[in-house]
Amino acid sequence: MRILLVEDDHLLGSTMLDMLRADQHTVDWLDDGQQALNALTDDHFDLAILDLTLPRVDGLEIVRQTRQQGNQLPIIILTARAELEEKLQGLDAGADDYVTKPFAMAELKARIRAVTRRRSSTTSDALTVGQITLDPASAQLTVGSATDTLPRSEFQILQYMMRHPDQVATRRRLEEQLYGWEPGAESNALEVHIHHLRRRIGKTTIRTIRGVGYLLDSQAACGVPECP
Predict the structure, then answer these.
(1) Last residue of a domain, which of 103, 122, 141?
(2) Phi and psi for 195 in degrees, rounded to 5?
């Protein structure tokens, strides 16, 4: 899961970053409200964890604007503001949960699991392109009548491409799904993951756009000529 962490306490943010990554999440960390709002507008995340007291744009305003834009990603507010009225404001603005500091990391991880479970049970998140279906909640891939559970890296790549079929996904954007904004990819790691995905969904379904990146071909994903 790709998480956006927005926290301006650098000691706490660094600790949370390490602990969330230890759970195999891809985590990007920002300490500025305006940068967080821009990231939520321009990029794709599976979950956001927001402090409320942030430079430039308050976390509550980030929640409001994110929901106004129609973005329904799960949002957990994590803040020292513990008054009931403030909790109600956060939840009424559209946050899925409200956790007050100080907190136990085990509790936050449990809240993350609960929020993502609730969202997956109340929304139809399955992605379908042609004969390919991907369930984000379970990482289960179905191709025709065959099913399989994808490893994390292959799931992150295919999920992004299925959200943007017939659009070129640059190498940089796909690597962000795996490593966030920090460099972390080996030179051929992406090619290896693409190779494995092609073995699962067909060689022609993922096209190489030389010098740019890759494209999920919806026509090839249909598997039959008459597929619309």
Answers:
(1) 122
(2) -60, -45
Long-range Cβ contacts of 86-94 (<8 Å, 24+ apart): 86/52, 89/60, 90/52, 90/60, 90/63, 93/60, 93/63, 93/64, 93/67, 94/63, 94/64, 94/66, 94/67
Cis bond upstream, residue 74 (ω within 30): no
CA gap 116, 197 in Å, rounded: 25
For residue 225, the model assigns a pLDDT of: 44
Domain extent for 87: 2-122
For residues 107 and 121, give the distance between their C-alpha atoms in angstroms, rounded to a whole number.
21
Which CATH number characterizes residue 199's domain? 1.10.10.10
The number of folded domains in the chain is 2
Q: How would you class 120 by CB atoms within 10 Å of its CB: exposed for 0-12, middle for 13-18, buried for 19 or more?
A: middle
Please write the tens of the pLDDT for every residue from 73-127.
Answer: 899 999 998 899 999 999 999 999 999 999 999 999 999 988 887 766 555 568 8
32 lies in a domain?
yes
- Written as six digits, the tokens of 155 are 């799931």
Which structure tokens are listed for 52? 């409320």
Question: Is pLDDT at 52 greater than 50 in this prediction?
Answer: yes
Q: Distance between CA atoms of 92 and 96, rounded to whole angstroms? A: 9
The whole-number pLDDT of residue 226 equals 43
